[in-house]
């Protein structure tokens, strides 16, 4: 015989039971107003038996009106107790939520976990002055070092769970991988993911930071990247691109990371081809070395170091500039790893060239090289061309860049180089203001325009060589950049019919003009599935490892000489929180998972 199901019998609580049996309904269950016990099954027989067995003697002398008054009084008491409980519960949840919010801010600001105690002390002092009656509520917020560390880990896990959930909907994804060393000389492998779902929405997030305590060969790098992909439960056949810093361990033809991943994709029978890129920003910086003007930079670096290295010289130089009322009051240092610093140093040295020579003369230093006209012409040229390179570098930096736009930036710069070379040979210095200044001040020798034009030619040749892999993907990138200008005949056969439909659609052409290339892909109709897949693959690609470099800066802010013992797990959690872009921690969900735990003051002050 089938078991009876009480919830299907449609039993309802009757108001008369309040006065007859001293019961009320709470959350669908009958609760005794006298003892607080609840009865499992909402049935009059059960309520009557409970009342007659346990409470019949207490109210036997009351008439019906007195019983009604008694029931109402007991109901008011029950409601007040429930309200008090709810208030305590909500206050406890608010305290936990506040600790999560502050832990997130501490992680984002690269502060140590012990800052929580300092923040709490400040909160209590402010509370004592502004709202002393609320002091206990502030005391209930636990901000001890252990609590902050635990909250940061929970926030990080929540973000990772969200990313894993997003990853299940990716139809294409790419990885950016770079490696650096922290202050403890531990190699750290940074991995970012850029995925695109079926609606062509892009998710660009931090995937992992893996410490590598041993060797950092291509096989070691592959093991870590492979582990990350498997943890995310991402299918290898949807991996489209891999962007690296171009190191041999990354790009080695046989045992590099790229080669190992291609082998893995073949093992997994992936039909797509992995496209590997060397970071555009790295390559742009390397192209600058093709000018072979280290002799100019070495003289400038020595000069700056002489002025800045000794405190007395530096103070006297700044006082000297103040006395001359120059526009600039100091010289910046040049740091090799900071790519943009070279341009700033060159610009400042060129503008203060006369003042620098006067100061060095006063110190008894030889300034023959600094006054040489050929050297000054080369410095002016290096100053201008570095300024142009820096402007392009800044364009390439940042998040959410589409690779087709980055390729367009590089292509435009190559065209500019061709123009500048032609103009330099004709001594047209319209785009080289420092060179123009030097040409006007030359006394005897002519401006070396032919020699400098050759330098521009060398730079252009190096750009063509280094960005050859992008040229090989030109048709693919242009398909996303401007699908209305693509030659249908030279396009892959599976795209030709859809391309004709697209290029003949005036409404889509107007939409492209309104929203631009990056956003237009979302408006491709479902009737063009091949174009949508192609767009998703291109949108997912990283053009640079900028995000990895930015993460290493965050890593160095957090893991300093004062926090060198920060564990790998805590560092990983901090970086996931501080680098999150499209994802935000679901703090309300975390508070709910805490089981409505209310932190006591004694716990928070441990």
TrEMBL record:
Domain SPIN-DOC-like zinc-finger intervals: 14-60
Domain of life: Eukaryota
Positions in coiled-coil regions: 54-81
Keyword RNA-binding carried by entry: no
Pfam families referenced in this protein's UniProt entry, alphabetically: zf-C2H2_12
Keywords of the record: Coiled coil
Classification via PANTHER family: EPM2A-INTERACTING PROTEIN 1
Protein name (record): General transcription factor II-I repeat domain-containing protein 2-like
